[in-house]
Amino acid sequence: GRPPAKSLKDYFQPLKTADSWWLMGFYAVTFGGFVGLAASLPIYFTDRFGLTPIYAGYATAGCVFAGSLIRPVGGALADAIGGVNTLGAVFVLAAFALTGVSMAENFETALGLFVLAMLALGTGNGAVFQLVPQRFSKEIGVMTGLVGMAGGVGGFYLASSLGVAKQWTGSFSGGFLIFVGLAVGVPVGVAAVQG
Fold first, then answer.
1. What global pTM score does this model have?
2. Per-position DSSP letters for 6-22, written without gaps between them
3. What's the whole-number average pLDDT of the chain?
4. Which of 19, 92, 111, 154 is 20 to 30 A (C-alpha) from 185?
């Protein structure tokens, strides 16, 4: 069942379609958000709420566990109602949760909202990969690599935006709101891909 060999140029053909860029953008927000938060939460919890590094690690692990565990459910939900519909709901939920985080005054509220955000982003991770083979059935390998790469770039961006916001304003809130802006803008992209 091995497919015919392709030239290096053939592997970049999917980048000529808008859908490939949208899928990369979706994953940059879902997986990038997940990774960026996972990397930043220990610092956030110790700086914002004075947790010890050990308890900040426990809180972060709980958030990451929730987001990781739900990922297959995201794929199943996308199978049931469609990847595009799932992503639309996921981004709205993530935007809501992270807007709440930017205003949270206590650890318990922030933790609950982070868990909700990570559940949404984990669901979105599964939904993106439900869409890739539907749109790029003959380029699954290269598209999986490109989409995964975009997720890594998104993770770097979110972690950096939180650090820059803290450095410039003394608060992490601006970094969370930048991400909220991305999450709110993505449903427009979802609608474009669907159309």
1. 0.89
2. --HHHHTGGGGSHHHHH
3. 89
4. 111
